[in-house]
């Protein structure tokens, strides 16, 4: 079953079309569904396989850096609704994840950069040695040295898998993986950015919050690394639109929102910010970045 590429297809209408195809192929519970593609495909596959006939076995062959180091791991799957990212989904684990790095030979340059956003995220929240290693290198180095790339992927897969193994249902440390994602998700669909670029800008917003609320002082070092991997660190935006998006965020609880910020590079923490304070800070950030 072939699904058109792009985040705009991570929706219920694609799910319906795939299910129609499953019906005509007479797919039954003896099948294993295998998603071959980037994170859009692994998210969709996991979701469809979890709901079709109340759940079939599934596995992934992730083909983008981002899907290899992040999206395929951890069992979160789902779709966007009304522009809200991943609003509907389930947590169910794949039976297997198969890496074949030769797929990366055809991955467009833009999507190499995209994948490094989540790698830098892992370094920021969990691993200062990885941060230091990334500082020494660049995308071309990893593209040209397959062993270095495989080692980098192994480090990142292990980091994410360990977090998920300890906290599959996101009651504790799994929340750290959302560093950059609250603001990132809000701008991703609003301004049509690819996921990694949106998360890159989102990490900088989290750093802004940390600087204001926790006197975090390493924002420039994070920005420098993101730019070294050709990722954006700012984006003009309209605070009113983003604020509306925040109201629907899964990390909002009553009058507070949980943000992931850095205590220092290599250590992410969960911080509750009152919605009133968050709104003020969002508008202050809009002023700093320039309105859309
Ligand atoms: N479930 C999770 O835990 C999780 C974590 C992070 C991101 N995500 C999701 O992952 C998605 C982003 O994933 P992505 O960046 O892989 O996007 P994507 O799936 O849209 O893939 C990016 C583009 O690259 C193409 N592509 C993929 N592999 C290729 C290859 N080997 N050669 C040539 N072209 C290739 C795709 O067709 C697409 O056009 C977002 O929807 C995001 O929400 C999910």
Structure notes:
- With 292 residues, the protein is of the alpha/beta class.
- The chain has helices at residues 12-24, 39-51, 65-71, 109-126, 128-136, 139-144, 146-166, 181-190, 195-214, 219-228, 239-247, 275-289, and strands spanning 32-37, 57-62, 76-81, 84-91, 96-97, 252-253, 256-264, 267-274.
- The strands form 3 sheets. It has a 3-stranded parallel sheet. It has a 3-stranded antiparallel sheet with strand order 6-7-8.
- The longest helix has 21 residues, at 146-166.
- The radius of gyration is 19 Å and the shape is globular.
- The model has no long low-confidence stretch (mean pLDDT 96).
- The structure holds nicotinamide-adenine-dinucleotide.
- Nicotinamide-adenine-dinucleotide binds at residues 5-7, 10, 37-41, 43, 63-64, 66-67, 70-71, 74, 76-77, 85-86, 103-104, 106-108, 111, 114, 195.
